[in-house]
């Protein structure tokens, strides 16, 4: 795993009392970036982006409820409303009044952005967003994890696979092969697969199952229409969980899409599989909408 500098840690309390482990990196007063990770992941998923951006940005990353160091929620604590509440709480706790940030969301993190799109706290703080390897609806119907043609049978089997309550167990050679097939591109390097496997296998089983049920019935199409800030969309062409059909539809439906990037051969885990490309997208948004500029090597040594 990538070694990062010691963060400034916060425990943010959401609307229903859920506690969210939050970490802040980089200089105070620098342009702000907020990172929301996906299903079964944690803020460690963004390690490459945190390392690259923290020199000249204030990078705020949090563990979604039930992931990482954020406790598993009580029964009823899984919903798109909860996702939106949590993001609003993190923004309120880590940004000053009226301070704006670029918000990047991967997979369920992108869905979090869509869920929060019309919220006052989101509107106050969001300067622009990156929707990375995500979709607003029909997730099980469009997923290609099960190697069958589109139709009811594939959708049902996908729901069974992704909604399984079975424990993932330890990280093994076999489990890494399965995870790579389902979530990563065929050319993914072994060390990248290992990073993803260790993060995913650490997700508590109740949280993995609870969020799978939310994702199975997801419908955030209204949130897409409400997302009126500039939005960049990025996806891997080999994504089996949220295939490019979702990103292409998002690019068409978003009120202010700044562009669609399709990364050839990359799977669902784009921030880990293609860290430079994802970081570059975030930097472009901060430069354009926050006026941020990269720190030069001379400035970094001063």
From TrEMBL:
The keyword Repressor does not apply. PANTHER family: AB HYDROLASE SUPERFAMILY PROTEIN YCLE (PTHR43798:SF31), MONOACYLGLYCEROL LIPASE (PTHR43798). Residues 33-279 form the AB hydrolase-1 domain. This is Alpha/beta hydrolase. InterPro entries: AB_hydrolase_1 (IPR000073), AB_hydrolase_fold (IPR029058), AB_hydrolase_sf (IPR050266). One of its GO terms (molecular function) is hydrolase activity. It comes from Streptomyces roseolus. The keyword Hydrolase applies. Keywords: Hydrolase. Coiled coil: none annotated.
């Amino acid at each position: 795993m990538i070694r990062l500098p010691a963060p400034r840690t916060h425990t943010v309390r959401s609307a229903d009392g859920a506690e969210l482990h939050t970490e802040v990196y980089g200089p105070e007063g620098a342009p702000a970036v907020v990172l929301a990770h996906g299903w079964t992941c944690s803020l460690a998923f963004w390690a490459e982006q945190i390392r690259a951006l923290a020199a000249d940005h204030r990078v705020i990353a949090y563990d979604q409820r039930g992931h990482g160091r954020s406790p598993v929620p009580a029964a009823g604590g899984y919903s798109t409303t909860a996702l939106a509440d949590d993001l609003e709480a993190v923004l309120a706790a880590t940004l000053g009044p009226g301070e704006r940030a670029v918000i990047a969301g991967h997979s369920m993190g992108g869905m979090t952005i869509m869920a929060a799109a019309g919220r006052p706290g989101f509107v106050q703080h969001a300067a622009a967003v990156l929707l990375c390897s995500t979709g607003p609806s029909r997730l099980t119907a469009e997923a290609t994890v099960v190697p069958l043609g589109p139709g009811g049978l594939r959708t049902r089997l996908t729901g069974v696979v992704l909604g399984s309550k079975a424990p993932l167990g330890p990280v093994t050679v076999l489990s890494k092969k399965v995870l790579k097939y389902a979530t990563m591109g065929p050319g993914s390097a072994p060390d990248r697969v290992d990073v993803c496997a260790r993060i995913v296998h650490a997700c508590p089983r109740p949280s993995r199952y609870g969020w799978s049920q939310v994702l199975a019935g997801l419908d955030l199409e209204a949130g897409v229409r409400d997302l009126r800030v500039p939005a960049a969309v990025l996806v891997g062409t080999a994504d089996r969980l949220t295939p490019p059909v979702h990103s292409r539809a998002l690019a068409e439906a978003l009120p202010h899409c700044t562009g669609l990037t399709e990364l050839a051969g990359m799977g669902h885990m784009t921030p880990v599989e293609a860290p430079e490309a994802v970081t570059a997208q975030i930097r472009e948004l901060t430069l354009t909408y926050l006026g941020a500029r990269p720190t030069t090597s001379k400035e970094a040594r001063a």
